[in-house]
Design a protein that fits this description.
By secondary structure, this protein is an all-alpha fold. It has one domain. 72% of the residues lie in helices and 0% in strands. The protein contains three helices and no strands. The longest helix is centred in the middle third of the chain and has 20 residues. 0% of the residues are buried.
């Protein structure tokens, strides 16, 4: 039987491999990106972030 890797497993692996400072930087970047995506929905900012998401390889639709 194969097991499926979960987000919790990935966070555990990252915790084992990364320093505390690196984890803080990753979570701060994720929080800043989420804030930007949620609250900057003006058309110009939205289009800019949409293009950024595609450039970063994120599938958004």
């Amino acid at each position: 039987m194969t097991t499926t890797e979960t987000v919790h497993d990935r966070i555990g692996t990252a915790h084992d491999d990364l320093t505390t400072g690196q984890l803080v930087a990753v979570f701060a970047f994720a929080a800043a990106l989420a804030f930007t995506l949620l609250f900057l929905q003006e058309p110009l900012a939205h289009d800019s972030m949409h293009n950024f998401r595609h450039a970063a390889g994120v599938i958004c639709h």
